[in-house]
Amino acid sequence: MKRPISVRSAAIIVLLFSFLLGGCSDLFGKSSPDPSASETSTGSPSSEPSAAPDASGGVNAYLSAWERLDYAGMYALLSPFVKKNLTEEQFVKRYQTIYDALKVSNLVVTALPAEQQASDGDGAGTEGTAVTGTGTAVKGFSYRVTMDTAEGPVSFDNQGRVRKTVEDDVTAWLIDWNPSYIFPGMEEGDTVRIEKTPAVRGEIVDRNGNPLAVNVEAAQLGIVPNKLGDSADTVKAAMAAKLGMTVQEIDRKLGASWVKPHLFVPIAVAADDAVRDELVALPGVAAQKVMVRRYPLGEAAAHLIGYIGEINADELKTREAQGYKAGDLIGKTGLELALETQLRGTSGQSAVIIDKAGVRKSVVAGQDATNGATYKLTIDTAVQQAIYEEIKADEASVAAIQPATGEVLALLSSPSYDPNAFVQGVSKEQYRQWNEDPRHPFLNRFSRTYAPGSAFKVITAAIGLDSGALDPNEAKEIAGLTWKKDSSWGKYYVKRVHETNPVDLQRALTYSDNIYFAQTALAIGKKPFVEGAARFGIGEPLPLSYPFSASQLATGGGGPSGDIQLADSGYGQGQVEMTTLHVAFAYSALVNDGNIVYPQLSEADAASAGKLWKEQAMSADTAELIKADLVKAVASPGGSGHGANIAGASIAGKTGTAELKASKGTKGQENGWFVGFDAGDPQLLISMMIENVQGRGGSGYVAPKVKRIFEQARSGN
């Protein structure tokens, strides 16, 4: 056992410290032995001490040891009155436990000057000596503590007192310590506890405030293992059946390393009240109220909004420095992931003093939680839902915008999945079905690029008109359904669907003539063609925070590699790829005098409202001419886009069929496009692509779907 330090040893420490500090004793004033005051002594009461240091030496020695985190050194300077009820081990452990929990650093402990000193509770001022009720001489002192902690900086002024103690004719002023020295207000039995206040995740709403991702109260069903009794197998089987899980999944949760027999083990969120009521009636099953994420549009907005889930090991590795911990929820896909930092907020954390009864007494340090921001999107829930109903059975990508303002009204990918299943606890079987579905419901198609096919012909026409390479009124004679430039093309050729002559721009758009636009691209030439495409933003990402793939004119970011590829690019084949949203913005130039406004997806993009992303992607005259031709392409009974025609409306639109095949003459997948808007009232522009339209009418399968969406929008339903 460690031998307690004697008063004599403490006095030596004090005298040495006083010698090293020299005149610092003036902080407490000069003091002389007071013959009238009794002294605590283990020697003769009548003997005069051989040395009479003032109080400052003991105080400064103690404060210096404290600043060095020398807890044993601090204990050595405590008075016998303290030590008789407090062992060194207890003292050291108390400081270590509290300071370690707070992660204390940069500790500074200083004595306050005499003019800032306050009298102690017994009336002992800093300029003289008082006598306690036990007849012991004491002096008060004040000190200041500053430190950094994990919960933030801490600073306080406090008072203490020293007691005059004599042993073997040696006088020492030793510290009359109590728990309030650690933090003001602390008493015996109090502890310091770290309390965390989670931030409330920000919600996501549409342009009208309709919920897209919100926090709702739900019943978290769980099991208390030691209350299952003999019914364990029956209870787990019943829970598995009602919650769409397997017994093995429940056993895995019950077998987690942290689980103890008396603890509530979360199993799944109850889908409805009836399921909750039925299950909590079983032995060992309980429910707790929790806040969970809810996605009201479900499948209709799954890829856009995404979902949250518990952070995994890989995510934790990259996010730990940002304050994430095991068990935290994090955005997994969609906007929940893209806006994770803004939606998450900052959790609050405080160090608080707790009394014996567990009652919170005061806050030592900390910060309040800062809730995540609520994001208001430009998305229109009604448009989003209407489009989903049209394409939910297809493999499709759709973007809808307000072309004059750049506001994105809808973004969809189909087939889809229910993100709420991940909140409730998706079963292995359900996840397997989705993951193994050959149509890939987890694939976000609207964020990917596709060959735009004939939808690109509008861009080729605009480049040709503005470069002077295309005369819209020139009637060309094109013989047959196939064409190639010359013998240098070998067996390669361009094919068109309709043999019609002569062909001008309006007829070429109406009948979607591939040969006409292949010849136009060659007439434009590679360099002007690449420069013209760049005016539409092709080759660069859309200026939105959402991770869309960047469009391209050719693989590698350059232009077409030769005449064949340039010709194919003219009608949206070759290596041209665009997202449906980028195609929509390219067409928006037709209603903005040739300009493309900045895309907007949320209020955060409002700073770009009214600004132009691409000025004069095409001239105003070119925009007017092409728009009129696209109205005719839909209105004409033989036009490729006639399936979108609405009586009384001026629908302007362009179909497109992109063929994906290994070589000429072979059959491959066909993706159908339709891009359109009401030229008389351009409030809604839709860009729709549906995969595998071969055998279903090609792009003719797509146009009627867009027509029905326009009809709903016109009727207000």
Which descriptors apply to this entry?
717 residues; alpha+beta; Nuclear Transport Factor 2, Chain: A; Ribosomal Protein L30, Chain: A; Beta-lactamase; 6-stranded mixed β-sheet; 5-stranded mixed β-sheet; MecA_N; PBP_dimer
Question: Would you kindly provide a written description of the structure presented here, covering whatever features stand out?
Answer:
- This protein folds into 3 domains: 7-188, Nuclear Transport Factor 2, Chain: A (Roll); 204-376, Penicillin-binding protein 2a, domain 3 (Ribosomal Protein L30, Chain: A, 2-Layer Sandwich); 384-429 and 443-715, DD-peptidase/beta-lactamase superfamily (Beta-lactamase, 3-Layer(aba) Sandwich).
- It has 23 helices and 25 strands.
- Helix 1 crosses helix 2.
- Strands 1, 2, 3, 4, 5 and 6 form a 6-stranded mixed beta sheet that branches. Strands 8, 9, 10, 11 and 16 form a 5-stranded mixed beta sheet that branches. Strands 18-17-25-24-23 form a 5-stranded antiparallel beta sheet, with helices on both faces.
- The longest helix is centred in the last third of the chain and has 16 residues, at 620-635.
- The protein is α+β, with helices and mostly antiparallel strands and 717 residues long.
- The chain starts with 6 loop residues before the first helix and ends with a helix.
- Residues 35-56 have a biased composition (Low complexity).
